[in-house]
Amino acid sequence: MSTQTSASTDQGLLRDLVGGLSVSGDGRTLSVGVVGSAAYASQPPGHCLDACLEGDPGAALMRGCEFLRGALRNAADVAQLCDGKCSKGFRAAAQVTSIAGSPATVVTVEGPLTGGPGRCSPVDLLGRLDDAARLVQRIGQMLEENAGFANEILQNYEQLNLIFDLTQQIANVTDVREIEKVLLERVARLLSSDAVCVVAAEGACRTYFAQPQPDGAVSRGPALNPAELAQAADFVRRTRHVRVAVVGGRQVIAAPLVRLDDKVEVVLADRSAGRGAFSAGDMMLIESVLAFGGQIISNTELHERMHRMLLEVTRALVAAIDKKDHYTSGHSERGGFLTRLTAQELGVPPAQQQTMEWAGLLHDVGKIGIPEEILCKPGKLTPEEWEVVKQHPRMGYEILQPIASLGVILDGVLYHHEYPDGSGYPEGLRGDQIPLVARIVHVVDTFDALTSTRAYRRAYSIERAIEIIRAEEGSRIDTEVAEAFFRALTRYRRENPADFAARFSIGSEKECENACA
Amino acid sequence: MSRILVAEDDPHILRLISMWLQREGHVVFEARNGLAARDLVRAEPVDILVSDINMPGMDGLALIESVIGEGCVRRGVIVLTNRWDHAEIRDRLADWGVTVLPKPFSPSRLSEVVESLAAGRPTTARMAPPPVSERGAC
Ligand SMILES: [Fe+2]
User: Fold this and answer.
1) Are residues A391 and A293 in the same domain?
2) ipTM score above 0.90
3) Which of A127, A412, A464, B67 has the CB geometry, 3.0–4.6 Å to A437, for a possible disulfide?
4) B84, B106, B109, B113: best mutation site toward chain A, by most A Cβ within 10 Å?
C-alpha cells in the first residue's frame, strides 16, 4: 500500500521510525526493532528478519530465538541479554521502554551485512539502543497525545453537530414546551439514556423521554426513589454542576437547566448498568447542550413574558378609553378577541392572527380625542358632531403611527369604518381596496355595537344582530368576512358556552343608568 | 467489521475519520483525492466509501459517479458535505441513493450509518446498490 493509503497510519509511523534508526556503513549494519507491545504489531530488527524469521514479523517465529523470546516477554531477563550475542553471532541488546502507555521492548542488532562477527565498539551499540528507546517512547507519547486530541475533537464535533441540529430544529418553534421536548429527546439519544426527566424547582418531575425496555415495559423516568431523586437534584441545584452517580444499580447523570429568572431545574438521565458508566465526555456534552438550550428557553420565555405584558398594558389602556364612553365598556377587549376568532376562521396564518388581534384591540383608540359630551351624548348627534366622531379612525392612526412596528395594525385602525360600497370613512375605499384586517374589525365592531346597550336603545339579541348585519352584506359589510365571523361565533358559543356568556353579557343595563353622569 | 475507504483532502479530518472508524473495528483505507480513491477501489473493492465533496483533481461527485456503477463499493456510499451546500448537489446524491451527513460530522451518526449499511439496512436516504456479483467485476 502506498504511503498515501495506509491501513493504519500509527503502525506505519512505527515502521518508518525503526527503519530510520537502522544504519549501514563500514561494511556493517545496525538494525533497530520494537517488539512485545500490546498496542502495536512487532517490528523485529532487519537482521532478525533476514537471518532467522524468513521475512515474517509474526511472533511465532520470533519465539524460536532466545534473544527475541526474552525481548517479547518484556521481562527482567532482557537485561541479562543486553550487550550479549545472539545465536547467529550478532551483537544484540534490548531495553524495556513504553509506547502509547504500555510497555514494549526496543531491540538493536549489530553485525556485518554478510555473516561473521563485527568489530564495532560496545558503546556504539548501547548508545544507539538508548537513542532508539528514547525516540520510541517519545513517539509513543505523541501517539497517545494524538489519540487524546482526536477524542477531544470527536467529542467537540459531536457537540457542535448536536447544537447545529438543535438550532435548525428549534428555529421555527416558538413554544417553550416544544423546545424543551426537542432538546431533551436529543440529549437522551446522545447519551444512550433509557429515560430523561426534568425536576422542576417545585420538586415535581416531568418525563420527556422513555425508551421502551427490552421486556416491553416503558421506563417511567429515572428509576429513583423520591429521596434519592431529591438528593441528586439538590446537589445539582446548589452547585450547578453535573453529577454522575450509581443509584439502585442504574447509572444516573444529573445536570442543571437554568431558566428565566435564574430558576434552576435539574435534568436527570439514566441508563441500565450494563450500558457502562457516563463518561467525562458525556458530562461535558450534557452541560454544554443544556447551557445552550437553557439560553434559548430563557429567551423564548422572556419573549413570551414581554409579549404578555405588552398585551396587558395595552388592554388596560384601551379599557380606560372604553370607560370614557360608559356604553362601550369591554368593547375593545371583545373587538380583539372576535377579530382573532374571525381571522382564524378565514385561515390567516397564526402570526398575522396575532397582529389582527392587536388591531381589533386598538381600533377605537382615537376616541380618546373625541370630546366626552359628543361621545356620550344621549340621543341623535348633529351633523357637525357626527363629523367630529368620524375623526376617530384618523386620530387613532395618528396616535399609533409613531410606533413603527405596528404596520398592519395601523391599517386596521385607520380603515375600520370603510364600507365595501365606498360609502365609509375616512377615505371612501371600496371592496378589496380595504385591507382584510380592517374589513374584519369593521364586522366585529358592528356586531359589538349592535349587541351593546346604547343611550338611545337597548341591546339587540345576537340573532337579531346577525340578521341586521346580513341585510347589509355586499353594501356596508364584506360578505365573506361576515359569514366567516358568524361561523366562528356560532362554533365558539357551542364549544365554550360558559366563556361565551361571560364575554357577552348582552343587554346588561347597569351601566345605562348613570352613563356620562 | 467492514472495509471502508475514506476520501478526504483535509489530512486532519481524514485522519480523524479513519481513526474513529478503526476504533469501531473497521479496516480503513485513506485517500487524499478522488483519483487516488478511484484507483484504490478499482484495485480492491471496499464495503463502504466515505467521501468528501470538494477535493482537488477528481471531486467527490465525479468519484461517486465513476465508482457507483462499477460495483467496487459493495454496501454503500456516505457523503460528508457542508451544511450550506447547494440543494441540487444534495438532490443528485439522493438520486444515487447516497447517505448525506453534514460537516462537522457527528461521530455517533457516522457509526450508525456505517452499521446500517454493513447490515444492509436502509439509512435515511435510499441505499445499497446491488451486490458486486450483479454488477460485474471492477
Ligand atoms: Fe370605531
Assistant:
1) no
2) no
3) A412
4) B106
> Is-contact B125 B98, C-beta < 8 A?
yes
Nearest CA in chain A to B11: A4
Same domain, A186 and A293: yes
d(CA A4, nearest CA chain B) in Å: 6
CB contact under 8 A, A157 and B22: no
A335 torsion bin: left (phi>0), alpha (psi -120 to 50), beta (else) = alpha
Are A82 and A193 within one domain?
no
- Residue of A10, A154, A164, A167 to mutate, interface with B, max B Cβ within 10 Å: A154
Rg (C-alpha) for chain A, rounded Å, is 42
Nearest-angstrom CA–CA distance, B63 and A32: 41
Task: List C-alpha distances in Å: A351 to A277, A355, B108.
Answer: 46, 7, 38
pTM of the model: 0.59
Q: Is A135 within a domain? A: no
Please give the interface size between A and B, counted as residue pairs whose CB atoms are below 8 Å apart.
Answer: 48
* Domain tally, chain A: 3
Provide the angle, in degrees to the nearest 10, between the axes of the packed helices A280-324 and A176-190.
180
Residue A133 belongs to some domain of the structure: no
Do residues A377 and A293 both lie within one domain?
Answer: no
Domain that holds residue A429: 325-516
Ligand 1 centroid distance, CA of A510 (Å): 23
Task: Select from A4, A147, A164 the Cβ nearest to the Cβ of B32.
Answer: A4
Residues from chain A contacting residue B18 (CB–CB below 8 Å)? 9
Q: Is A232 in the same domain as A350?
A: no
Please give the domain boundaries of chain B with CATH numbers for all domains: 3-125 (3.40.50.2300)
Cross-chain Cβ contact B15/A150 below 8 Å = yes
CB < 8 Å to A1, chain B: 29
In angstroms, rounded to a whole number, what is the distance separating the alpha carbons of residues A237 and A240? Answer: 5
Report whether A183 contacts A175 (CB < 8 A).
no
Best residue in B39, B108, B111 for a mutation probing chain A (most A CBs within 10 Å): B108
* Cβ <8 Å between B106 and A161: yes
Reading chain A (517 residues) residue by residue, the pLDDT tens digits are 333 333 355 677 777 777 777 777 666 678 888 888 877 788 888 888 888 888 888 877 787 787 788 788 765 555 555 456 677 778 888 888 877 677 888 888 887 655 444 444 444 666 777 778 888 888 888 888 888 888 888 888 888 888 888 788 877 787 888 888 888 888 887 787 877 878 776 666 777 666 655 555 545 555 556 677 777 788 888 888 888 887 777 788 889 999 888 888 888 888 877 777 888 888 888 888 898 889 989 999 998 899 889 888 988 888 888 877 766 678 888 999 999 999 999 999 988 998 899 999 999 999 888 888 888 787 788 999 999 999 999 999 999 988 767 788 999 999 999 999 999 999 999 989 999 999 999 999 999 989 888 777 788 889 999 999 999 998 999 999 999 999 999 999 999 888 888 877 654 443 433 333 2
Torsion of CA A82, A84, A89, A92, to 10 degrees: 10
